[in-house]
Amino acid sequence: MEITIEDKPSLLLAGILLENVSNKDCPAAWEQLFQNYNVQALEELGNGQAYGVCLNLPRQGGINYLAGYQVHDRAKAEELGLTVMEVTSAKYAILPISGPVPDSIRQGFQKAWQEFFPRSIYRHAEGPDLEVYSKQNLSVPNFQMELWFSVTK
Fold first, then answer.
1. pLDDT, tens digit, for every residue of 6-24?
2. Beta pairing partners, 33
3. Tell me: the pLDDT tens digits for 94-145?
């Protein structure tokens, strides 16, 4: 497992937010996003980078999940009816993964929680975890992406 630790700058993201859901419900956010918005229009709001954002809700037992894109103009994204979220700068454990989505994402999360965190000097921070999608066709069998886990020492 080739995990690197990196400091990342803050991000302004906009998309569809599902609140207090289980992990298995996350693909529905992407479905809603692509049913209601043109991909090219979403990409043009920023640099074209797609992100999934997972925020744990320990008291409720679920997560908040945002499927979206990096944006430069908060007001324009809000005018389109998108939920805008700022992810503050943080330190992340970055795990490159490949394979069919969403199975590779599930396997990546399992590796991080079962292998990386128990053996690392880092522990999971209270910040969000991110799915960072490449611009490949999502349906290719060896789809490349990264998982970013917020960490602290």
1. 999 999 999 999 999 998 9
2. none
3. 999 999 999 999 999 999 999 999 999 999 998 999 999 998 887 888 999 9
Cα–Cα distance for residue pair 134/132, rounded to 1 Å: 7
Q: Secondary structure of the chain: what % helix, strand, coil (to 5)? A: 30, 40, 30
Report whether 131 contacts 54 (CB < 8 A).
yes
Which is nearest to 144 in space by CA: 153, 131, 130?
Answer: 131
Query: What's the CA gap between 110 and 132, in Å, rounded?
Result: 17
Buried b / exposed e over 37-64, threshold 16 CB at 10 Å, is beeeebeebbeebbbbbbbeeeeeebbb
**To the nearest 10°, the Cα dihedral for 140, 16, 31, 77?**
-80
DSSP state of 120: S
End-to-end Cα separation, the chain, in angstroms? 19
Nearest to 33 by CA among 96, 81, 74, 104: 81
Q: Which residues contact 52 (CB under 8 A, 6 or more apart)?
A: 26, 29, 30, 65, 66, 67, 130, 131, 133
